[in-house]
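Dear H.,

Thanks for agreeing to be a second pair of eyes. The structure we're designing against is below in token form, covering all 198 positions.
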């Protein structure tokens, strides 16, 4: 199984100005934007960490999920939420020849914790020996920063502040999320029930 981003977060989508205000950095000077590249780097790192911890895509973009076998023959659990659409569903044989799975053969269940693709029928298509399945899908709360839930915005700013204040420093504590950030993310983490099964 492998999840890869097909589109990345655009520089213009990063809330650099809002983060600058959050840090109470000075304004009205000729060099106001001098720190912007550093702020953008901290925001990207915080976004990635929050998404990893919560299994949620904050800013909307396209992902590709590749699997070589079904865990359940009638469904495919997608590893990140919220999923807004399945854009392409293909089965590849060992030679790399692709066949499209038509939209009437499955349906998307956009669950907040475990979005699924369910078969319309007994099972999803057979994966040939040595073959794979690739699913292109769009996930994310919103296309712009203002559409992201306020508590996730705050978690990103808090973590980005931690990265900004500790840039260049490394310690064992860096592997642990700050308590306030972890508290904000708790309700977004996938529920671990029935051994991870729904």
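And this is the sequence the design step returned. I haven't edited it by hand at all.
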């Amino acid at each position: 199984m492998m999840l890869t981003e097909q589109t990345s977060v655009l520089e213009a989508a990063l809330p650099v100005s809002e983060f600058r205000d959050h840090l109470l950095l000075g304004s009205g000077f000729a060099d106001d934007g001098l720190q912007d590249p550093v702020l953008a780097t901290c925001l990207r790192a915080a976004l990635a960490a929050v998404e990893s911890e919560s299994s949620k895509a904050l800013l909307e973009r396209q992902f590709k999920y590749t699997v070589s076998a079904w865990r359940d023959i009638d469904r495919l659990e997608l590893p990140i939420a919220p999923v807004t659409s399945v854009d392409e569903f293909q089965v590849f044989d060992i030679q790399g020849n692709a066949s499209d799975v038509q939209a009437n053969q499955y349906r998307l269940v956009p669950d907040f914790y475990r979005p699924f693709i369910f078969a319309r029928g007994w099972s999803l298509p057979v994966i040939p020996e040595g073959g794979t399945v690739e699913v292109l899908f769009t996930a994310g709360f919103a296309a712009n920063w203002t559409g992201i839930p306020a508590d996730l915005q705050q978690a990103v700013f808090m973590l980005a502040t931690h990265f900004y204040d500790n840039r260049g420093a490394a310690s064992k504590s860096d592997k642990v999320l700050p308590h306030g950030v972890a508290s904000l993310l708790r309700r977004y983490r996938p529920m671990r029930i029935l051994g991870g099964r729904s």
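Two observations from my side: Residues 61-139 form one domain. Strands lie at 2-5, 61-67, 75-77, 83-92, 98-100, 106-109, 116-119, 132-139.

Warmly,
E.
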